[in-house]
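Support request, please re-run this one:
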Amino acid sequence: MVITATPGGGALFNIDAIRPGTHINCVGADTRGKRELPEGLLQRSRVFVDDKLQAEQLGELQWGVGTPSEEIGDLFTGRVSYVRSASDISIFDMTGLALQDLTVAQRVFFKAAAAKVGTSLAWPW
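Re-run finished. Output below.
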């Protein structure tokens, strides 16, 4: 597994560095012109995104518009199925959706509160 979370001005590694079976989470390409993956890798991979339109405008898919991709929400709800083989290269291109961030934060908060861990801080608003 490879996780990229950089300011991503260009490819971070050569395409030959990615072997069959690799999964990549891309976090850094979230603005026009940013990139972390080498040219040609998207086309060799099964690509999942948080939002297709946003990924084509701001994410890695701006470098491969038209590359087949699926929204991660469709995978979670069962609208899309995927049985990963040992040789698959898969990519999750995260451009960031506030609703997903808030949902995850809420789950973490409730689990921490139930386990009585962490520190509660008053927020001014």
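Residues 98-115 form the longest helix (18 residues). The two ends are 39 Å apart (CA to CA).
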